[in-house]
Amino acid sequence: MKENFEKQEKTFENQLKKVFVGVSKDKKAVANQLIHELAFVASDLTELKENIKENGTIVTAGNGAPIANPAQKQYVSILPKWSALIDQIVKLYPTDDKPINKKDTTALLDKMAGGKVKK
Question: Superkingdom of this entry's organism (predicted)?
Fold first, then answer.
């Protein structure tokens, strides 16, 4: 599971670097750090979403009582961080330039929202 998470994180990170290739050199270090964090958060959200899909929103506690799936609570608590990271990195991008390939950008954001990563 850890290997899959790290592989997915690296895939997201590589894809994000391609999307945000137009960030100026003076902002590149900050952009790379944001990309790294965004890839981690996106991987975490994907894993949590898979858990929710697999186990449902209600799970059984150790005593047999139904409880809200803890993965769902974590998912909801991480969404604001994901949104803030997206906002920060988009602000680094030059306003007069657009991402190299809009189709790739849309596909990447779809994957980060819980879709499957193609290898």
Answer: Bacteria
Q: HSE of 67 in the Cβ direction (CA atoms, 13 Å)?
A: 10
- Across the chain, which distance is largest between two alpha carbons, in Å? 58
Contacts with 82 (C-beta within 8 Å, 6 or more apart), sequence order: 38, 41, 42, 45, 112
17, 35, 71, 72 from 11: Cα distances, Å: 10, 11, 23, 24
Are 48 and 78 in contact, with CB atoms under 8 Å apart? yes
Contacts of 37 (CB under 8 A, 6+ apart): 85
Whole-angstrom Cα distance, residue 109 to residue 114? 9
Unique residue bearing structure tokens 């769902």: 72
The low-confidence residues of the chain, meaning pLDDT below 70, are 1, 94-119
